[in-house]
Write a structure and sequence with these properties.
There is one protein chain. This protein is an alpha+beta fold and about 375 residues long. The protein is about 50% helix and about 15% strand. It folds into 3 domains: about 80 residues, no CATH class; about 180 residues, Nucleotidyltransferase, domain 5 (2-Layer Sandwich), CATH 3.30.420; about 70 residues. The strands form 2 sheets. The chain has a 7-stranded mixed beta sheet, with helices on both faces. Strands 1-2 form a two-stranded antiparallel sheet. Strand 3 and strand 4 form a beta hairpin. The protein is elongated, with a radius of gyration of 30 Å. The relative contact order is 0.09.
Length: about 375
């Protein structure tokens, strides 16, 4: 290559000698950007797999096998990732908030019983989203005694939390009774969410609600559900024992004493006697955490709550199971619009499992869980 510059200092190429260039290796030329491209078949395969929830690395490995090896590919893994991201952006349109509004409006047009509410801030930016499909609303009419409420599942890149209302059906399966995506976990947000839920359920108040010890939740429940029994999740409380007493010399004995007081006491009087004995024995009078639990013992100790019907629930672990159910469909980088789409697919799978349980109950005799003959004869 020959070049020269003019009086202004601008360089111009005057001659090129191509015979002196090194030849490009055929095995490497496919990796240059100018030569890389995705075929329409590969694009379609990647898009279908993404919609089905198949991770990108598995889709890429499938394409490699189908092509007969890396050497036959005209693209790299990053090209596949960029294409999927581009398709995702195209599906979202101008923004997540607008896309969700459009999606919910279509769902409502298809099924008038579909309920949704979107909460915006002063600058019209998305704050909170709540929705309930018709199946959830119909299920609550049959199974409206108790629901658990939990917000521990993060869904997307905006760090918004997934809030779920979960009940139990006649098969003992967890059923979704409504859900939302919320930005803040304060009393105001929970009041908004609970009121939207109660409104779509035609003001049919549940008999009981189970949550963790979150104070903002408790305040909101007292405002929206003043006559509903509010129970704290027993599992959330007991799992804190190693943290609260990890350095105590008698930690194993304290754990055992607390479990015995909680699970073995048949009456409030028995519990209080066992609890006070533990406090005295291990000199725990100044433990603020235990003192707070004792003041609120009516919210979490089983013997104080057995006069109410709790559908055999004492924890929010069913929400954990529901969240695990969604784990196969969404991940930490899922966008809001994609979450809604995957939610719908996940629910269809859940409905199918309930349908299978219905068929099984009609065609088989459910075994008696009790070992006593009197119950076996009744069945």
């Amino acid at each position: 290559m020959t070049a020269c510059s003019d009086v202004l200092g601008t360089w111009q190429i005057s001659m090129v000698h191509l015979e002196h260039n090194y030849k490009t290796s055929p095995t490497k030329s496919r990796l240059y950007r100018c030569n890389r491209q995705l075929s329409e078949h590969v694009k379609r395969q990647l898009q279908v797999n993404d919609i089905a929830g198949i991770p990108l690395h598995k889709s890429y490995n499938l394409v490699i096998v189908e092509a007969g090896g890396y050497e036959n590919l005209t693209f790299v893994k990053n090209d596949c990732r960029n294409y999927i991201n581009q398709v995702g952006r195209l599906r979202l349109g101008e923004g997540d908030a607008a896309a969700i509004q459009v999606y919910f409006s279509k769902m409502q047009a298809f099924c008038p019983s579909f309920y949704f509410s979107v909460d915006l801030d002063e600058e019209c930016r998305l704050k909170n989203v709540f929705w309930v499909d018709n199946r959830c609303r119909q299920a609550y009419k049959e199974f409206n005694d108790v629901f658990t409420f939990d917000i521990t599942y993060l869904t997307n890149r905006y760090e918004m939390s997934f809030a779920s209302f979960v009940g139990i059906n006649h098969h003992g399966q967890s059923i979704l009774l409504g859900c939302g995506i919320i930005f803040n976990e304060d009393t105001k947000t929970f009041v908004w969410l609970f009121r939207r839920w109660l409104e779509c359920m035609e003001d049919q108040v549940p008999a009981g609600i189970i949550t963790d010890q979150d104070k903002a939740m408790q305040n909101a429940i007292e405002i929206v559900f003043p006559n509903t029994k509010h129970r704290w999740c027993l599992w959330h409380i007991l799992k804190k024992l190693p943290v609260k007493f990890g350095n105590h010399s008698c930690q194993a004995y304290i754990f055992s004493a607390i479990h015995d007081a909680v699970y073995e006491s048949q009456s409030p009087r028995e519990f209080e006697k066992a609890w006070n004995s533990m406090i005295e024995k291990y000199e725990l009078h100044d433990n603020d955490w235990l003192s707070g639990l004792y003041r609120e013992r009516g919210r979490w100790v089983p013997c104080f709550l057995k006069t109410s019907f709790w559908v055999d629930m004492s924890t929010t672990r069913r929400n954990k199971g529901m969240n695990a159910f969604f784990d196969g469909y969404v991940h930490s980088k899922t966008s809001l619009k994609q979450f809604i789409e995957q939610y719908e697919r996940a629910m269809r799978c859940k409905i199918e499992k309930e349908f299978q349980a219905d068929v099984k109950s009609f065609s088989q005799v459910v075994p008696c869980a009790s070992k006593y003959d009197i119950f076996r004869k009744c069945t």
